[in-house]
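Task 17 of the worksheet. Students: predict the tertiary structure of the chain below and write it out as structure tokens. Keep your answer in the requested format; marks are given for formatting as well as content.
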Amino acid sequence: MTRVNIVQLYPVELGVTGDRGNVRALEARLQARGIDARITRAGIGDAVTDDADLVVIGNGPLSALRGVHEDLAARAGWLEQFVSDGGALFAMGGSAELLGEGIDLVEGDRVAGLGILPYRVARTRDRRVGYVIVDTPDVRVVGFEDHASEWTLSEGDAAYGTVVVGRGSYDRGAQRGEYVRRGNAIAGNVQGPVLPLNPALSDVLLAAVAQRRGFELPVAPAGRIDEYAGEARATIERIIHDKGFKTIQL
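Model answer:
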């Protein structure tokens, strides 16, 4: 049986917005296809398997980012090689900030980034809170944003999604953008967890794994989970214009 190895980094420290649910969604999408999933949850100092196929890193507050920073920096060479080799990576919120070129804090301090993804993050007093809809070249993503950051892309072609509703993470000319993609590494600020709500986005990551590994990814049979996700997305899209969005001044 084909097996896909999924690594979740820092599930305790960077797992405050349902990030374990993202891993579970990927596992469920594989199991629905008859593909085995091996999940490795690695905290600070824990060894990571060399045969990782997909790395998931979640969200956390600034204190948690500082807490994992040294350990994550020690893994920078492995992560860079993994991404350069076409490995699939999904990073959300705080971890996505650390994978960039650095974080400029409101108080003037800076947190060094790993430089794996092509953007710099500036924390702001303008908090973006509310539902968000993003159109990527592959799928439409519906979710929730709650962050106080503005990203500046150093490579314009790394922009992966255009915001249809919401604020997003960066400017994209006349529009706002959300999600950055380098190879098969995708990073953004959409929370939720986002993958259970958007099975098609899970499949984008899994298709990248299949292509890299050289096996065929079967079409996933429709199930109740997909129906629930579709109903939830449809409900959000129906109410989103009435609900409105607010900006919180910190």
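Marker's comment: Helices lie at 19-32, 62-74, 76-84, 94-99, 194-197, 199-213, 224-243. The mean pLDDT is 93.
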